[in-house]
Specification:
The chain has 643 residues and is of the alpha/beta class. Helices cover 30% and strands 25% of the residues. The protein is globular and about 75 Å long. The structure holds 5'-O-[(S)-butoxy(hydroxy)phosphoryl]adenosine (WT7).
Length: 643
């Protein structure tokens, strides 16, 4: 892109040159009726049998493309929207390994198709059937996508677990799904070192139903393989045929389960349906990233998170796009590894997170040495993007020539549901934009009344929601109803985000209204960290809060009460190690404070809000409802003095 964006008032708009070629350039698309809009999108995908009805609603449950029969892999391969003969020899994915010395892997659509089919056949031979759950605990290597697609091919439900999650976190998820087959790797690279993933998998399957493990050979590290339980991927796939019949899936059959943190300790398995999810992934990827035949799309998200599912796998593939997946960290071995990678492959679209942007700013500052000529769209997701990060991203990476689309969504929504569209705009710093065409949202006060511009309130999604919205919490209908459909009745989806809109209706996200904290864009709850800490014999009680962090956005800190005869440093080390062991390094505590008492209400509820205010310097407000108001001053002193 060579033309700068146009600035009007506080917002930017796409240039006439960009608009000319964009898929969506006319704001009239916002006026289309949601059902018509989504139905039109669905028609571009493959169906064995067409749906009888676009949407049906039995609150709090709903269906999309009722009675339609499909398979997402057929929409990707045999019946791609671009036509399979056109994409057959096109590159589907480019895998960039962590080490600069290692060769990238380049896989065409046809090669990917064959790999998916071979592994699908191997899974079948292992006894995996339609409706079975398969665990995937893999790093960012092509086999992660191949495994997901192979499951989808045969109608098995994949449940990906982030590879940096601890064995305990893996176990919790495997127990919940009662998975019999787990796919993992020997290891992977992190900052030049090998992480022994197989060892973590071996620990994680203890006490679960896992009977078979498939191991991808990636790092060639020493691992132990148990006879009649562990099999190498290459041995299983070597002799398999290149074709496997796609399973005929009902639009509402489950495609995958993905765990996310909710407002309580235990992770929730959000479930996605085959039909609606595919339509959402296809249409949002196409229009928000304006995907064209010659684009090279790079989303930095790991496959362990929903962004990795929708935009590092299904979305680009459904559009016949070439995309990059990267094993390593964007800042390793040099802080500009990500910038080198954009230039190396001529990426045209770059999708990343505010936490990464803040790190780029800190480590790199000005980027005048990079031209980023290939880029035309840059995009952000995961947490609110602050003004200076927005402007840096726009100027230093986008060079004032790229549409900057901030995309709001959640694991639960399956795909993006709010953003500015690259060919329409406006791009306004800190504002995520308008609901995607076909989506209705509102901002309500606590009584459920719609709020005027500039008033902060609860962000909700209104019927017919979006095709990719979760269909339930795995094996927990109560949690589904309570978490999402109880605040404003069963017809209003509660996002747990606080937001407001400006006079033009552009939405700005303020943050979460529950106990979810966003650490480097990853979603954690204070409850799950506390659960881990409270398991320690030496700890009587704990409270975790998120405090602002320059790079990570938020970082967790813990307050502990202990009666053990142990030094402060010993306790701090024990608590920190426990969190890393139970959850993983992403949850690492920034600090641990030893206190005598925690502020509580008379009913015994810990007031984390007050602890947060001690850090933000905000007025503590009325403390008279506390049972132990004196604890607050004592904690204030400890925060000041204790390291
Ligand atoms: C929460 C969902 C969806 C992909 C990654 C996160 C926050 C997400 C934005 C954004 C402000 C954002 C919200 C949301 N969030 N995107 N563009 N601006 N906040 O998925 O881990 O399920 O977290 O992330 O608070 O509720 P997730």
């Amino acid at each position: 892109m060579s033309v700068k964006l146009v600035k009007k008032g506080d917002s930017y708009f796409p240039s006439a040159e960009f608009k000319k070629k964009a898929w969506l350039k006319d704001a009239s698309v916002y006026k289309e009726s949601p059902l018509k809009f989504w139905e039109k999108q669905a028609k571009k995908l493959f169906w064995f049998k067409k749906w009888r009805k676009v949407f049906s609603h039995q609150p709090p449950y709903f269906k999309w493309f009722v009675n339609g029969k499909t398979n997402i892999t057929s929409s990707i391969f045999e019946e791609n929207a671009l036509g399979f003969s056109r994409i057959k020899n096109k590159v589907a994915l480019i895998w960039e390994p962590e080490s600069l010395e290692e060769k990238p892997r380049i896989i065409t659509y046809y090669e990917l198709f064959k790999k998916v089919n071979r592994f699908a056949n191997a899974l079948k031979k292992m006894g995996v059937k339609k409706g079975d759950k398969v665990g995937i605990y893999l790093p960012m290597i092509p086999e992660a996508m191949i495994a997901m697609l192979a499951c989808a091919r045969i109608g098995a439900i994949h449940a990906v677990v982030f590879s940096a999650f601890s064995p305990t976190a893996l176990k919790l998820r495997l127990q919940d799904t009662q998975t019999k087959v787990l796919i993992t790797a020997d290891g992977y690279f992190r900052k030049g070192k090998v992480i022994n993933l197989k060892q973590n998998a071996d620990k994680g399957i203890k006490g679960t139903n896992v009977k078979k493990i498939v191991v991808v050979e990636r790092a060639k590290n020493q691992i132990s393989m148990k006879k009649n339980r562990d099999y190498f991927w290459h041995d299983l796939t070597e002799k398999e045929s290149d074709f496997c019949q796609p399973a005929i899936m009902d639009a509402e059959d489950l495609l995958f389960i993905l765990y996310t943190s909710g407002s309580t300790g235990r992770p929730k398995g959000t479930v996605q349906a085959c039909g609606g999810y595919a339509v959402q992934a296809y249409a949002t990827a196409k229009y928000i990233f304006d995907l064209k035949e010659d684009d090279i799309f790079w989303s930095t998200a790991d496959v362990g998170w929903v962004t990795g599912h929708t935009y590092s796998c299904y979305g680009p593939l459904l559009n016949g796009t070439t995309f990059i997946i990267f094993e390593g960290l964007p800042s390793w071995p040099q802080p500009d590894r990500w910038a080198q990678t954009i230039e190396k492959y001529g990426a045209t679209i770059f999708y990343t997170a505010p936490t990464a942007i803040r790190m780029f700013i800190k480590t790199l500052g000005s980027l005048s040495r990079y031209k980023f000529d290939s880029l035309r769209i840059i995009s952000s997701v995961g947490e609110p993007i602050d003004d200076s990060s927005w402007n840096w991203f726009f100027k230093e990476v986008g060079k004032g020539k790229c549409s900057l689309v901030d995309t709001w969504w959640q694991t639960e929504t399956g795909g993006i549901i709010m953003t500015s569209l690259p060919g329409i705009g406006p791009f306004k710093p800190c504002f995520t934009g308008l609901p995607f065409p076909g989506v209705k949202v509102d901002i309500l006060n606590d009584k459920g009344k719609s709020l005027p511009p500039d008033k902060e309130g609860n962000l909700v999604i209104l019927p017919p929601f979006n095709p990719g919205l979760l269909r339930g919490v795995y094996k927990n209908p109560k949690k589904y109803a309570q978490t999402y459909w109880s605040q404003f009745g069963p017809k209003v989806y509660f996002t747990s985000d606080t937001a407001y809109k400006d006079k033009k209706g552009l939405i700005r996200i303020v943050g979460r209204s529950d106990d979810v904290i966003k650490v480097a864009g990853h979603r954690l709850t204070t409850g799950e960290l506390e659960d881990a800490i409270n398991q320690l014999k030496n700890i009587t009680e704990s409270a975790v809060i998120g405090i602002p962090d320059k790079i990570k956005g938020e970082a967790p800190i813990a307050f502990i009460i202990s009666h053990a005869k142990k030094s402060l440093t010993a306790l701090q080390a024990e608590v920190s190690a426990q969190v890393r062991k139970e959850i993983g390094p992403i949850a690492s505590l920034k600090n641990v404070y030893l206190v005598a008492d925690l502020p509580k209400t008379r009913s015994g509820k810990i007031m984390r809000r007050i602890l947060r205010k001690l850090f933000s310097g905000e007025d503590l407000g009325d403390l008279s409802t506390l049972a132990n108001a004196e604890s607050v001053e004592a904690i204030r002193k400890i925060i000041k003095t204790q390291k």
